[in-house]
Design goal:
- It is a single chain.
- The mean pLDDT is about 95.
- By secondary structure, the protein is α+β, with helices and mostly antiparallel strands.
- About 30% of the residues lie in helices and about 20% in strands.
- Among the domains are: about 55 residues, Uridine Diphospho-n-acetylenolpyruvylglucosamine Reductase, domain 2 (2-Layer Sandwich); about 110 residues, Enolase-like, domain 1 (2-Layer Sandwich), CATH 3.30.390.
- The strands form three sheets. It has a five-stranded antiparallel sheet with strand order 4-5-8-6-7.
- The structure holds flavin-adenine dinucleotide and iron/sulfur cluster.
Length: about 325
């Protein structure tokens, strides 16, 4: 049996109290605990105090100032079912509904999902296992087993919601000792699996804002896992298409494709400009996007599945995701 290390728990009821509690050296926020507690059982981190966020007023979902505003404490099960989320950010509702399984979605929060620790087959193991291998850059060692000779940890961000929110141009508001600040999620993640977010010491995330679409839009999230019930993504792709009018056959006026579960940051696919003016229901469009994804995204042997296979099927899932968007429209007449 894996045991938790010793720590104290603080239970603030206001954001100001939470910020004060997080000022203590070694303090760490905990929301649902569905990622943090298993990691602590593996001795990935040793906080002195866990600052519990569950009593904070961070569970709102509302439309405000042209954006869908979601409190960081909203649990994934509620996010997946909320009518405002399903209407204004259906790919976010879909991603939240695909995280883990129902019990974890009842506890896990959006804030925790965006701050999920990075994962790697060489570090999400018991301390004995890791030490037998001599550790690694993320665990008391000086080498990387995924990229031999690599100087930076490429453990993967396996959050289902992060790529979707980057694709939707979402922002994140954080409160900390220096007050509140808002950052674009696209700029929040760093290419270092040992410290992959821009969260400053003592900060906690409070709200996620998704700008409302300025016009007709289609969006989706594709997740592939071996077991359908509870796995982290092995392939994940968020896609957003802004259209000239509200028909699936309308010309595309803007496209955003973001791939997750590669390394420590969601990867925004570049050079999508040629897709503008094309139609989603033209298979050549999906082929062009799949080719760009395949050229720019190379799954690494950091997750517990064959990297060559993941590379090979990544463009397949892009095409399937777009085909499903088109087919859903056809089935609704
Ligand atoms: C078996 C299993 C399967 C899983 N499958 C998936 C999956 O398929 N997809 C997926 O995305 N996740 C998966 N998870 C991970 C996890 O359940 C979810 O990501 C969940 O959303 C984490 O939220 P939480 O509130 O439980 O976070 P916690 O565990 O409480 O926290 C996670 C991290 O976020 C930090 N944190 C929490 N809230 C805040 C905040 N407001 N501001 C700043 N930092 C914060 C914590 O300090 C910690 O570092 C799985 C976990 C398990 C155990
Ligand atoms: S990517 Fe390399 S450094 Fe990072 S956790 Fe995996 S083995 Fe360790």
């Amino acid at each position: 049996m894996l045991r938790l290390p010793g720590f104290r728990v603080a239970s603030p009821t206001t954001i100001a109290e939470a910020v004060a509690a997080l000022a203590e050296p070694g303090a760490r926020p905990i929301a649902g605990g569905t990622d943090l507690l298993p990691n602590l059982k593996h001795r990935l981190g040793a906080p002195t105090v866990l600052v519990q966020l569950s009593r904070l007023p961070l569970r709102h979902v509302e439309l405000r100032d042209g954006a869908l505003c979601v409190g960081a404490g909203v649990v994934l099960a509620d996010l997946a079912e909320h009518p405002l989320v399903r209407t204004h950010a259906p790919s976010l509702a879909r991603a939240a509904g695909l995280v883990a399984g129902p019990t974890l979605r009842n506890l896990g929060t959006l804030g925790g999902n965006l701050h999920l620790d990075t994962r790697c087959r060489y570090v999400n193991q018991t301390p004995l296992w890791r030490e037998a291998l001599g550790g690694c850059l993320k665990s008391h060692g000086d080498r990387c087993h995924v990229v031999p000779g690599g100087q930076t940890c490429v453990a993967a961000l396996s959050s289902d919601c992060a790529p979707v929110l980057v694709a939707l141009d979402a922002t994140l508001t954080l409160h900390g000792p220096a007050g509140a600040r808002t950052v674009a999620l696209a700029d929040y993640y760093r290419a270092d699996g040992t410290a992959h977010t821009g969260r400053a010491a003592g900060e906690l995330a409070t709200e996620i804002r998704v700008p409302l679409a300025p016009g007709p839009r289609r969006e989706t999230y594709v997740k592939w896992t071996v077991r359908k019930s509870i796995d982290f993504p092995l392939i994940s792709i968020a896609m957003r298409f802004d259209l000239a009018d509200d028909a699936i056959a309308a010309p595309i006026v803007g496209a955003r494709v973001v791939v997750g579960a590669l390394a420590a940051t969601p990867k925004a696919v570049r050079k999508l400009e040629p897709v503008r003016g094309r139609r989603l229901d033209d298979p050549a469009t999906a082929d062009a996007i799949a080719a760009l994804v395949a050229a720019q995204c190379k799954p690494l042997p950091n997750l517990p599945y064959d990297a060559d296979y993941r590379r090979a099927v990544l463009p397949v899932h892009v095409r399937r995701g777009i085909a499903a968007l088109v087919a859903a429209e056809a089935s609704h007449g």
